[in-house]
Amino acid sequence: MNASLHAHLKDSHNPRTLPVLSCYHQFISTLYEQHSKETIASQITCPPSQLLNYDLILFIGYKNKQVFVYSVSHSQHINQKAPLIHAARKLIQSKLISNKHSTYSINQISDQSLQATFNKSGLNQFYWSPFNTGKKYFGGLLYCRHTPWYRSDEEMIQLLNYHYLFLVEQHHFGSLKTSNSSKKRTVKYLSICTALILIMMLPIRLSVLAPAEIVPQTPIPITSPLTGIINKVLVKPNQLVKQGDILYQYEPVELKNNYQIKQEQLQVAESRYKTALQNTLVQYNNQAFAQQKAEYELAKAQLNLAKEQLAFIHVKAPKNGVILFSDTQALIGKPVSMGERIMYLSDPNDTELSISLGVQNFTPLKKGNEVLFFRNAEATTPISAQLSSISYFPDVKPEIGLNYPLRAQLTLNDNEFKNEQVRIGLQGTAKVYGEQVTLFYYLFRRPLTAARQWLGL
Q1: Fewer Cβ in 10 A, N or C end of the chain?
Q2: Given the DSSP bridges, would you call strands 321-324 and 56-63 parallel, antiparallel or unpaired?
């Protein structure tokens, strides 16, 4: 249906004169000095009349995936819904227009409404000059007038088109792509979006990080058996001890003096008791005898107590284990009361993981959830554990703040204990696994929470 390129072209007898060439060079120089798209589009649609005779030029391209008129000759404001503009856009979208330089007459337009629109404007001859690089199709210029086109007009249009195409490509005007490439691009974007959505919907286990420490599971408290002053500490913190080993001792002077005093008091009470017993042979006084006997029994009991206290000068380990306390110098010379806790004794293999989970990181957890403990001293080989207890009440630690105490049972074999990879007091970071969530929630849980708090929702 397309007409041949030179089918409607006629020879022109107008030679190229020096003024025309001068006008051409001045126009091109002015065009290359422009830097904005709007100015370039306006200049392209308004070449000097000395170069080309035309009635109307429309610069047509793509914008937002639709045919769009960038500029019209001698018009600053373009109404895309105007009848002539709409007719030109519809003509470009028709099968009549190709991506090659071509001339058309109004008789070749089959759409009667388009013919009527152009007839009203007095335009019946068209020349389509596309901006085509071979890979991209940037639209083009639709030249309109009421007289036929000549070969000289074609030569000038193609000469100008060379510069126009460079500027259009340089300033990134929207390209008219073929329907196949547009479909491929749409399919590509849809595929990428679908893949991202599917990836974001992948299930992943929610996890939180919290500071943790290996602590004894059931430590035995070593309490003070009497009131006194600690004189010497014979063990060091985290030292292995055996049953019967002396842990610490009290100041013995006061206890020994007390024992000697109780011995003397017992002798006095015994002497009075014997005297009262002899007096009953002469004159029986039941009340005086009973009083002396009671004082004698009391003195005997006090001596036994002093003897037992003297035996507690050396506090011994009740069983084998590791002795736990903070500082030796802090205990020496310290006055303690009976029942006051001095240190702990624990089995080195009876350990568990103490986790301090901040309230801001809290997530629903259940007993039996997997826990990985990364030690600060060896972060490449985590120790596995299982969550054993979750506190319902938060605790306060100076370095952490408000936190929920958690306990986890370590799952270790005998070799790990022999290699001393786990010791009481080791600190690190625990990774506590929770329930299954989507990857989107896992990645954007904190930003969404911060946004909700910032917006007050």
Answers
A1: C
A2: unpaired
Strand order in 321-324's β-sheet? 220-223, 341-346, 321-324, 239-241
Q: Which helix (H) or strand (E) holds 196?
A: helix 179-200
Tokens 């391209």 belong to residue: 61
Q: Which residues of 11-24 are buried (b: 16+ CB within 10 A; e: fewer)?
A: eeeeeeeeeeeebb
321, with CB counted inside 10 A (0-12, 13-18, 19+), is buried
Residue type, 239: Q
- What is the total residue count of the chain? 457
Write down the mean pLDDT value for the chain. Answer: 82
- Angle at CA of residue 228, ends 227 and 230, nearest 5°: 130
| Residue ranges for the chain with pLDDT beneath 50 | 1-7, 13, 176-181, 415, 417-419
**Distances from the Cα of 368 to the Cα of 292, 381, 384, 390, angstroms:** 68, 21, 12, 11
Task: Answer yes or no: are the C-beta atoms of 409 and 334 closer than 8 Å.
Answer: no
pTM: 0.47
Name the β-bridge partners of 63: 66
- The 3 state secondary structure assigned to 287-332 is HHHHHHHHHHHHHHHHHHHHHHHHHCCEEECCCCEEEECCCCCCCC
